[in-house]
Amino acid sequence: MGRGDGTGRIVSPEGADDTGTGILHVDMDAFYAAVEVLDDPSLKGKPVIVGAPEGRGVVSSATYEARRFGVRSAMPVSQALRLCPTAITVEPHFDRYLEMSAQVMRLFRDVTPLVEPLSIDEAFLDVRGARRLLGSPGRIAVELRRRVRAETGLTASIGVAATKHVAKMASTLSKPDGLLIVSEPETQAFLAARPVRALWGVGPKTAEALEGRGIRTVADILQTPPAVLDRLLGATMGARIRQLSRGVDAREVETRRVEKSIGHEETFHEDIGDPGALHVELLRLGDRVGARLRAGGWAARTVSIKVRFADFTTVTRSQTLGEPTDLGQRVGAAARELFDALELRMAVRLIGVRAENLVPAGTMGLALWDDDAEWRSIEGALDGAAERFGRGAVTRAALLRPDRSIGAVSHHPPLPTDQH
To answer: pLDDT digit string (tens) for 86-139?
Structure first.
């Protein structure tokens, strides 16, 4: 498998055979970091870490120059800076990433309507129906990479294969800024040489179980008796691993993925013990969750909170609403109610709000009157202002408390992803 720093990269030569292919996996390269470099060209070619430069933030992304020092996403920034002392740290700008993601996804949909976003910066495309108009899958991938670079200034790596599983493996191997085509006749040979950890869906524990029995490559899996795999992994996982190892993956590109939840978290630079200040943060997070619900056409039946105290003890609480909502006011109010029911026994390090049990917004039904009509109008106006002037240009007065001096690192979970 290709390394996260881009070494061990494999790409296809020009005109590579794409017989039997039709699925593309497109993955933007170091997306958050790449957007920061795009907006500040002085960062180009330098080790850049996206994350809070002070306090206890984590790395959201890093350029490949930083990754070669061992810097990885989700690593504490303090640890990343010890590995790469010359790195430049920049604060994340999630609204900007969403804006660029929307632009990239529009380019994908110019190629085919069969687009399945996996996260903010990657997607599957089924291009089998685009052959007559746009050419073979390999040619489509070449042109798509060219358009992404020309129209956004960013680079994308693409895997082209007959199945989603192999296409995703191929894009990972080709990073950064690469294209790897695995034709259908070459699939078995391609897979056989890969380590078991390269299989999409094989997590660390499964990999350790396999490697502990000397099963280190896909070829080893194919040579292992099914009964041995089933005893090791269970019958269901054993059968699944055997199918993937043979290149069998019947999953189609799903144009509408069902989101399981939408949430935001804040890690504070200093632990916060003031309930009033934490109430403001819950309202702010509720507004952000509500905005994402409305943007995605979802409503939430359940609101949950996550609170991590100074001693790293973490608690979660959830509440099922009387009716689904996509309003930040309702989400924030439920979050504050859940928080107030907790014993605030020490200062808080992290706080989060999440909307769960999502349903399409159009299925909420209509009452004889709308108790939320005023809030719906207000939040609709906020959405319009955000679209015109950027999120944060207009906000609630309650979020502008004169005594607010909280420093925090925002964690903006992207679209739910299987493995990224």
So the answer is: 999 999 898 899 899 999 999 999 999 999 988 889 999 999 999 999 999 999
Residues of the chain with pLDDT > 90: what percent?
Answer: 57
Nearest to 132 by CA among 22, 15, 13, 14: 22
Q: Which CATH number fits domain 1-184: 3.100.10.10, 3.30.70.270, 3.30.1300.10, 3.30.420.40?
A: 3.30.70.270
Tell the residue number behind the tokens 């005109």, with chain if given.
Answer: 15
pTM: 0.67
Matching residue, tokens 């944060």: 392
Active site annotation includes 122:
yes
Report the top-level CATH class of 193-245.
mainly alpha
b/e 57-69 (16+ beta carbons within 10 angstroms → b): bbbbbbbbbbbbb
Q: Identify the CATH assignment for 261-411 out of 3.30.450.40, 3.90.550.10, 3.40.1360.10, 3.30.1490.100.
A: 3.30.1490.100
For the beta carbon of residue 92, count every other beta carbon within 10 angstroms.
22
269: three-class secondary structure by DSSP: strand
- Secondary structure (DSSP) of 301-342: EEEEEEEEETTS-EEEEEEEEEEEE--HHHHHHHHHHHHHTS
Residue keyed to tokens 């999409």? 200
- Catalytic residue (one of 122, 265, 281, 379): 122
Q: Give CA angle at 356 (339, 331), nearest 5°.
A: 45
1-184 and 193-245 in the same fold: no
237 phi/psi in degrees, rounded to 5: -65, -40
Distance CA 349, CA 70 (A): 27
pLDDT in tens, 319-360: 988 888 888 889 999 999 999 999 888 999 999 999 998 887
Q: Where are the domains of the chain?
A: 1-184, 193-245, 261-411
